[in-house]
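Lecture 7 notes: from sequence to structure.

We start with a single chain of 199 residues. Read the sequence below before looking at the structure.
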Amino acid sequence: MSLSLQFITMLVMAGSGIYLGMAADTFHRFNERKKRKPWIHYCNEILFWILQGLIIFYILYLTNYGQIRFYIWLALIFGFAFYQALLRVWYLKVLEHLIQFSVTTWQVLRRLIQRLVIAPLSWMLKVLTYLLTLFWTAVIWVLFIPWKLLRRPLIFVWNQIKKLIPENVKKYILSFLELCSKIINNLVDIWKSIFAKRR
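Now the structure, written as tokens:
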């Protein structure tokens, strides 16, 4: 490798060491707050460091095609130590502020969605259900009241007509009218119960 490429590689590896320190602190900040079983915690640690190793090797490959030299390790350790000594305190403060900002933003967005979207939709659904219930109740009563008023006259007329109808035809007509009467009475009872529950 040329001297310029070696110098660039050292700078990149020093930056990778700083990145490694920041990534480790970020990982531990989020991982330590979650209550998990010990073996899950250890598996997360192993997977994290494997991933970081692959990322750093990929950066090295992009820089000098993956050629590993002793000074590369020194540059990586120097970057990590530089972060621990001078940048870690500042980064943790910035990270904590970013987390608090994200949590606050999420809470505000959740409240806005709850009040501006979910609550109005829920209220509109309740109003629509109530209006539909009133509408169908009115329809049933519109049908029910004339039926109550005309029931006795119709029965009287039917009794008079029934005397003139042959017995075989009378039987089919009577069964049909009884079925219609049962259906109407059942519908009235159902809508009465629904309206009573809504109230």
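The mean pLDDT is 83. Keep this in mind for problem set 3.
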